[in-house]
Design goal:
about 55% helix, mainly alpha, two-stranded antiparallel sheet, 3 helices, about 80 residues
């Protein structure tokens, strides 16, 4: 049993599950903290980014691409904004 528990596959699965659990705890805490801010979360949040390739690229149709834009969008998704 001990060799099974200490095996590479089980240890990898444990690490992944613990990391996922910690992420869920942090995300939940951040979402709760956001709700305490004196901001109306029903209103749209506008963020102006400076167009600097490859971080931010404004497309002709108004959409935004780039590393910074991806991080902002992922952050909004994580925070449930």
């Amino acid at each position: 049993f001990a060799s099974f528990i200490h095996g590479e596959a089980v240890q990898k699965q444990l690490r992944e599950q613990i990391a996922l659990y910690q992420f869920e705890l942090r995300r939940s805490a951040l979402r709760d903290a956001i709700k305490l801010l004196p901001v109306d979360l029903k209103e749209p949040i506008r963020i102006k980014m400076e167009s600097i390739f490859p971080y931010v690229v404004y497309n002709p149709d108004g959409t935004v691409q780039g590393m910074t834009a991806d991080i902002v969008l992922q952050s909004c998704e994580i925070l449930d904004l």
